[in-house]
Amino acid sequence: MVKFLLWCILLFLCWPLALFALVLYPLVWLIVLPFRLVGIALEGVLEMVWALITLPARVLRGI
Fold it and tell me: pTM of this prediction?
């Protein structure tokens, strides 16, 4: 909702820039999407490695 209100203010102040941002936003989203997917996958791998590293300590703590 805040993004929409900011866009409305920009539309009021400078409508060509607001229309340019409206067209450019989906293109930027498509360009950034692969990096976000790689980030999600890398985060999962790092969490798995951390779980494997801390597994012995968690097992010993449970005994």
Answer: 0.59
